[in-house]
Write a structure and sequence with these properties.
By secondary structure, the protein is an alpha+beta fold. It contains 8 helices and 8 strands; from the N terminus they run H-E-H-E-E-H-E-E-H-E-H-H-E-E-H-H.
């Protein structure tokens, strides 16, 4: 949370987590790979390609930039990081929050989540698809079961939030149900605002607003 990003971030975390339920989640926190490594306390899998969404573009077509070469911030003197992106495993919603902590204080921040079938072989195929010499397609990366979610959050004036979702499966009913559930949670949260007198009260309310428990996979 900061002066620009407030309770809506908890709603976004809940939506991302619930949209990808039942799958293994791997995320690329754009640009701030080293910061994400510290925040998540895990080594990233370095890949060649990351996905880009320009939330400020005026149309769906111009917002979707597709796969672009990785742009990890060159904090380390490790040449292997140049032109690479860091892929991290998200085991719980707290991991997604930690990844957001690494990127959210920029003017605009972006995290891409690739949710795929569980298992090491499926992870190998995901890494292989994101590491090929030419840009992959979302179909190549997601295969039949995968779900893609890009979360972009604008912090400075003139920057916007967006959630982009893709899957070979038809997710419309699932998305509609989650949006309706989020609306109910937001209404319930707003009704109890006067009861949130302390920071601990506020922190306890955030999982209820999000619809997820931070340490439950």
């Amino acid at each position: 949370m900061n002066n620009n990003n407030m309770e809506e971030v908890a709603v976004y975390v809940g939506l991302v987590w619930q949209l990808t339920a039942g799958l293994d989640r791997y995320a690329i926190p754009t640009y701030y790979c080293d910061d994400a490594e510290r925040s998540l306390e895990q080594k990233p899998m370095l890949v060649s390609w990351e996905y880009e969404v320009d939330a400020e573009a005026p149309t769906v077509t111009t917002r979707d930039k597709g796969f672009v070469l990785g742009t990890a911030k060159p904090l380390r003197a490790e040449p292997d990081n140049a032109g690479r992106a860091g892929l991290f495993r998200l085991s719980t919603p707290r991991d997604l929050v930690s990844a957001l902590h690494a990127v959210i204080f920029d003017a605009s921040s972006e995290i891409t989540v690739f949710a795929v079938a569980p298992g090491p072989e499926r992870l190998r195929r995901l890494v292989r698809a994101l590491s090929r010499p030419t840009p992959p397609t979302l179909g190549d990366v997601l295969e039949e079961e995968g779900v893609f979610v890009d979360l972009t959050i604008g912090s400075d004036l003139g920057y916007y939030d967006s959630i982009t979702v893709a899957s070979r499966a038809d997710l419309r009913h699932r998305v509609d149900d989650l949006v309706a559930d989020s609306a109910r949670r937001i209404s319930a949260y707003e009704l109890r605002l006067d009861d949130l007198a302390t920071v601990p009260d506020f922190l306890r309310a955030m999982p209820e607003l999000a619809g997820v428990v931070l340490d439950v996979p």
